Amino acid sequence: VTFDRNNVLHALSHRLRTQLAALPEQSFEAFNQAYRVRLASLGERVTLHTGAGTAIEGELLGIAPSGGLLLDVDGTPRTFYAGDVSGSLRSRSEWTSGG
Q1: What is the 3-state secondary structure (H, E, C) of 19-75?
Q2: The whole model's pTM is what?
């Protein structure tokens, strides 16, 4: 499958502008619920690689109201604000349905 990068960028940019414009009218919870539907690794074990070279493993719980990434690390919810996440990515049909 091939994609035209310009078309992808245009579609992504349009969708992002639409979502950003709606933020003032909706609560964080409404935004967070819409985001969770599209969060590929929600409920799965992931590894967060920090800038300090540390790898933290945990279950992806979602996004905190503060905007940080929520991971369950050894039974304790923890919030992280920086790092790269890796793990199994499963397909979400909502990505292609425009939902």
Answers
A1: HHHHHHHCCHHHHHHHHHHHCCCCCCEEEEECCCCCEEEEEEEEECCCCCEEEEECC
A2: 0.62
